[in-house]
Write a structure and sequence with these properties.
Blueprint: H1 9-21, H2 23-34, E1 43-48, E2 53-58, E3 61-62, H3 64-68, H4 73-76, E4 80-85, E5 94-97, H5 98-114, E6 122-126, H6 131-143, E7 146-149, H7 156-165, E8 170-174, E9 177-179, E10 182-184, H8 186-194, E11 202-206, E12 220-222, H9 223-229, E13 239-240, E14 244-250, E15 258-263, H10 264-279, E16 286-289, H11 296-308, E17 312-316, H12 327-335, E18 339-342, H13 344-351, H14 356-359, E19 368-372, H15 378-388, E20 395-398, E21 432-435, E22 447-453, E23 463-464, H16 468-476, E24 483-491, E25 497-502, E26 506-509, E27 512-515, H17 516-524, E28 529-539, E29 543-552, H18 554-557, H19 561-575, E30 584-588, H20 601-609, H21 625-634
Parallel strand pairs: 4-17, 6-7, 6-8, 8-11, 11-12, 16-17, 16-18, 18-19, 19-20, 29-30
Antiparallel strand pairs: 1-2, 3-13, 4-5, 9-10, 14-15, 15-23, 21-22, 22-24, 24-25, 26-27, 28-29
Bound molecules: adenosine-5'-monophosphate-propyl ester.
Adenosine-5'-monophosphate-propyl ester binds at residues 250, 296-297, 371-375, 397-402, 423, 485-487, 499, 502, 508, 513.
Length: 635
């Protein structure tokens, strides 16, 4: 699987040029030389950007798990596929070989079939970071069921909204989950969610914490006895290249979460190719991505990308601060991790602690260190480079999104010279462009613009589940003919990209995408609240934190404000999850609005940041006096 590996800068430029000149030929070669197909494609790509219709490897037939598992068995059945590192360092870690993974995924696939799950059915997976999360996800893919993994930090109503949106037939969960010194009642959350989920017929429950849980007769089943009875002989389903592989929800700037749909063949080719090149994976390396499988980073670079390359991938159940701040470094040392991939928010949190935690460990196994999820600030970049990478390991600052399936802009380690805070150059196949306010493509360098991609790549999401119009409107209408990422970027004098951040109403808090609208909806549902507006403000560790401006109803005005603030945060926690809680809440009597009724968020952003120097043009405001009042209320 190293036929698609780039080996020097000259080759990168050559490959890049080739990929732009003839994308079909470029991807055709990669796809045909590196995967096992039941049937090859009639056409490499078929697309209509105006309609947001994209197909790759048209009419090909394939199963991604055959490529992740079965085809490795002859040569590396005994190689470790998954290393599981539990939350508690005193609990033994586990190694799952490719042979064992094959057996466990096959059994799990047979359990799903025996429970009536068929190709095309949606299965919601709400599990902690334990091997069963990987195994059940792969088992869905094996039988052609569409997995919808929901991060186990979401609340019952967020889980219910996701289950209902895609009408999942089954939920797979566990009795509980460990995270640091907390035990999370996952089954309880599922029970609460399922009160409002008519499509769910069965719930499979993995035992992890031995918590005493209620099992609903006829609906809930312990997984272990079913697995015990299941045969380990399972033939992978034949999938069309464009059959959906999974749905993964991401926040939008408006309304309900978007169920991004990724399909089979394009996603497979793209994650495999990018994993190999961005992490310079070599046989026998140990790769560790600290994300949760509940996010796209985990889907693409804990599961699919590594397994497609026959790699060894680490699954870590816990958090970087438990039992102390050396946990990440201790794991790198214990498993001799070669490639380490984490988020700036984790780097900043760990950089704040004593250097002793990291210096205790030589970390000499590391070869490449990566960053993802939000812009990495210069200080964090240097700390990571100096103290984790020992100035020897290239830092790959990888830019991409749930929608893109895989990494789009990133240095290729040992090849692309890195530059702090820059994601550097687009990978082969990625035609990145910057657009100006007049919707023209910016040709010059040293400019800032809206980051778009002007030709499809195999890993791009194909639609939003049940709402293709929203997909088209969100990504393909702002700059006709192009995919619009929603991010702004700066291109420097040599063509390197630096991502400057979101240009829409999505705020990235601790690496999590949060749309302002769903949080505002949750706040507004509180009986004492009339209206609210959320903005982000810079935070040392989280990158951004949330600031809420809240207008109360008359009844609320009479209440104790401190208690009310607590209740509002609890409300958000119940509706979305603790990740969306506000750091600051200011009660106000009005919000700055334009004559057309739109909240002028840029003013609120400035107030939240404490920058009162220049609010810009406020002439279109209906109520300019409110700005002064809010400002004074904050001071
Ligand atoms: O704003 C960009 C930011 O994260 C957004 C995508 O979030 P999500 O779909 O949750 O996927 C995160 C993991 C791929 C992007 O629109 N982002 C991601 N990576 C970077 C980044 N911002 C700056 N630099 C990055 N390397």
């Amino acid at each position: 699987m190293s036929r698609y590996k780039i080996s020097n800068l000259e080759e990168y430029f050559k490959e890049y040029k080739k990929s732009i000149k003839d994308p079909k030929k470029f991807w055709d070669k990669i796809a045909s030389e590196n995967f096992t197909w039941y049937q090859e494609w009639d056409k490499v790509v078929d697309f209509n950007m105006a309609e947001a219709e994209i197909k790759w490897f048209v009419d090909a037939k394939v199963n991604i798990t055959k490529n992740c598992i079965d085809r490795h068995l002859a040569k590396k059945g005994d190689k470790v596929a998954i290393v599981f590192e539990p939350n508690n360092p005193d609990e033994a870690s586990q190694s799952i070989t490719y042979n064992e993974l094959h057996q466990r995924v096959s059994k799990m696939a047979n359990v799903l079939l025996s429970q009536g799950i068929k190709k095309g059915d949606r299965v919601c997976i709400y599990l902690p970071m334990i091997p069963e999360l990987a195994i059940t996800t792969l088992a869905c893919a094996r039988i052609g069921a569409i997995h919808s993994v929901v991060f186990a930090g979401f609340s019952a109503s967020a889980v219910a909204a996701r289950i209902n949106d895609s009408e999942c037939k089954m939920v797979i969960t566990s009795d509980g989950g460990y995270r640091g010194n907390k035990t999370i009642d996952l089954k309880g959350i599922v029970d609460e969610a399922l009160v409002n989920c008519p499509s769910v017929e069965n719930v499979l429950v993995v035992q992890r914490t031995q918590t005493d849980v209620k099992m609903k007769e006829g609906r809930d089943h312990w997984l272990a006895p079913l697995l015990e009875k299941a045969s380990d002989n399972n033939t992978a389903e034949i999938m069309d290249a464009e059959d959906p592989l999974f749905i993964l929800y991401t926040s939008g700037s408006t309304g309900k979460p978007k169920g991004m749909v990724h399909t089979t063949a394009g996603y497979m080719v793209y994650t495999a190719y990018t994993f190999q090149n961005v992490f310079n994976y070599e046989e026998n390396d140990i790769f560790w991505c600290t994300a949760d499988i509940g996010w796209i980073t985990g889907h693409s670079y804990i599961l699919y990308g590594p397994l497609l390359n026959g790699a060894t991938t680490v699954i870590f159940e816990g958090v970087p601060s438990y039992p102390d701040f050396s946990r990440f470094w201790q794991i790198i040392e214990k498993h001799k991790v070669n490639q380490f991939y984490t988020a700036p928010t984790a780097i900043r949190a760990l950089a704040k602690e004593s250097l002793d935690y990291v210096q205790k460990y030589p970390l000499s196994s590391l070869k490449v260190i990566g960053s993802v999820g939000e812009p990495i600030n210069e200080e964090a970049w240097h700390w990571y480079n100096d103290h984790v990478g020992g100035k020897r390991c290239p830092v790959v600052d990888t830019w991409w999104q749930t929608e893109t399936g895989g990494i789009l802009i990133s240095p290729i380690p040992f090849i692309t010279p890195t530059k702090p805070t820059y994601a550097t150059l687009p990978l082969p196949g990625i035609q990145a462009v910057l657009m100006d306010e007049k919707r023209n493509e910016i040709e010059d360098n040293q400019v800032v613009g809206s980051l778009c991609i002007k030709f499809p790549w195999p890993g791009i999401a194909r639609t939003i589940w049940g709402d293709h119009q929203r997909y088209k409107d969100t990504y393909f209408s702002t700059f006709p003919g192009k995919y619009f990422s929603g991010d702004g970027a700066l291109r420097d004098e040599v063509g390197y990209y630096r991502i400057t951040g979101r240009v829409d109403d999505v705020i990235i808090v601790s690496g999590h995408n949060l749309g302002t609208a769903p949080i505002e909806d949750a706040i507004n549902e509180h009986p004492a609240v009339a209206e609210s507006a959320i903005v982000g403000f810079p935070h040392d560790i989280k990158g951004n934190a949330l600031y809420g401006f809240v207008i109360l109803k008359e009844t609320g005005e009479k209440r104790d404000k401190e208690n009310l603030a607590k209740e509002i945060n609890q409300h958000i926690s119940d509706h979305i999850g603790p990740i969306a809680k506000l750091d600051k809440i200011q009660f106000v009597s009005g919000l700055p609005k334009t004559r057309s009724g739109k909240i002028m968020r840029r003013i609120l952003r400035k107030i939240a940041e404490g920058d009162y120097s220049n609010f810009g043009d406020t002439s279109t405001l209906l109520n300019p006096e409110i700005v002064e009042e809010i400002k004074e209320g904050k001071l």
